[in-house]
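Case study 2.
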Amino acid sequence: MNKIKILFLVGIISTIFCAENPEYVEDKSADIKTLVDKQNNNGEVVSLTNTALKEYLKKSDDALLIIKFYAPWCGPCNRMEKGFQELSEEFSDVLFTSVNIDTEDAITEQYDISSVPTIIFIKNGEEIKRIIGYKSKPTLRKIVKKVLNRATQ
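Prediction:
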């Protein structure tokens, strides 16, 4: 019972932290190229909100968008974070994003997320691949390369 209370409190604290620190919520008016450039300049994965996702999908042109669905209390999600972050720095033409399932219910429901981590690859507004569960950095790299090669053909 105490473990559940702690997990609940962690979720609440992270929600409050993000609400009080707007720099953690991405500018929804930016286009995909600007976001990719920003990601590559500071090496950070872009956090998505429901409103921001809709805007990015409208402006994405033919850029590959990768969305990682996670929860702060999820062990496999946390183990995958560093590799995902490093891959965002490695692939300069791809926008790596993340969605916290505890705070973004609408996106979670829209993409029918039932377990985390889940990674969805989107090209031209369409989901082209979905992977569920922990993946190591080398495995993720292979998947991203394969999806990029298929998406550019």
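The helical segments are 2-20, 32-42, 50-59, 75-90, 105-110, 137-151.
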